[in-house]
Amino acid sequence: MTKERAMSEMTRRAVEAAWDLTRKDQFPTPAARAEAIAAEAERLDELIGDLAQTLRDQGIAQFREANQGHLPPFLETVQIGNRARAQAEELILHQELGEATELAAMEEDEETFADQNWRDSPDRWKDHTDLLDDPTPEIDALTDEVWPEQTIRFRVMAAYLMQTRYEDSQPIPETPDDPLKAQFTDLVAAAVAHSESVLSEYRRMNLSS
User: Fold this and answer.
1) Residues ≥6 apart with Cβ < 8 Å to 167
2) Do residues 184 and 173 lie in contact, with contact meaning Cβ atoms separated by under 8 Å?
3) What tens digit of pLDDT does each residue of 66-85 get?
4) Residues 120, 126, 132, 137: is their CA dihedral positive or negative?
5) What does the angle CA 140 – CA 143 – CA 144 come to, to the nearest 5 degrees?
6) pTM (predicted TM-score)
7) Which of helix, strand or coil describes residue 176?
8) How far apart are the first and last CA of the chain?
9) d(CA 133, CA 173)
10) Dist CA 183 CA 65 (whole Å)
11) CA–CA distance from 172 to each of 158, 169, 181 (Å)?
12) Element (H or E) spanning 75, and its range?
């Protein structure tokens, strides 16, 4: 599935927080600073992605070695990928940003973390997409397999729903004929329709102003 997504929000926040401590006055304008942060976050995301893939491949190889050459089942593969991504993020951010990442985390404005209820919300897949990490490649691939007939926009949002339900240890559809598919389809279709309605209203207001 081709998806146009920005750099990981977590990586961008890590760079921004670290640079607030080490390079706060280095840029002539806020726009220049934002552009530099975005470029650095994209660079780090590429490093994280490469390392995560290497660690994931190692994890799968270890599983096969311990299980007579058999590939891990889907959910185990997702777990291996999630662990690899988390390890890669920790290693690369510490390596590239150093102790500033830890200091920044300690000195974050309390307002930023005042309301963390969204992290436990089952609706975070549609209400807080900008704060979530992207779905794993395995979830993306499964989403494509379950909904090959749907639009890219639908599948992007469906992947966030699938990732959220997986993280919450809830069942997810695994084939196009899975009985859960209809329920997930209704949820995603409603979310897409709402998003389009909000966007349409925003455009209408801009045209009339």
Assistant:
1) none
2) yes
3) 888 888 887 778 778 888 88
4) positive
5) 90
6) 0.54
7) coil
8) 37
9) 21
10) 38
11) 11, 9, 8
12) helix 74-97
